Amino acid sequence: MRKDVWIQRLLIVVSVLFVGVMLALPLIVVLTEAFSSGLDVFLRAVTDPYTLKALRLTLTATVSAVLINTLFGLTAAWAVTRFSFRGKGILSTLIDIPFAVSPVIAGLVFILIFGRISPLYPFLEAHDIKVVFAEPGIILATVFVTFPFVARELIPTLEARGTDEEQAAALMGAGFATIFRRVTFPHIRWALLYSVILCAARAMGEFGAVSVVSGHLRGKTNTLPLHVEILYSEYQFTAAFAVSAILAAAAVLILTARNIVEYLAHKEDDFNVR
Amino acid sequence: MKRRSAKRIIPGFGISLGLTTSFVSMMVLIPMLFLAVQSSDAGWSGFRKALSDPRILAGYKVSFLCSFAAAGINSVFGLILAWVLTRCRFPGHRLIDGLIELPFALPTAVAGIALTALYSDKGWIGSFFAAAGIKIAYTGAGIIIAMTFITLPFIVRTIQPVLEQLDEAYEEAGRMFGAPRELIFRRIILPELTPALLTGFGLAFARALGEYGSVVFIAGNMPFKTEIAPLLIMSKLEQFNYDESAAIALVMLVVSFAVMFGINCVQSRAASFSGG
Question: Can you give the pTM of this predicted structure?
Answer without folding.
Answer: 0.89
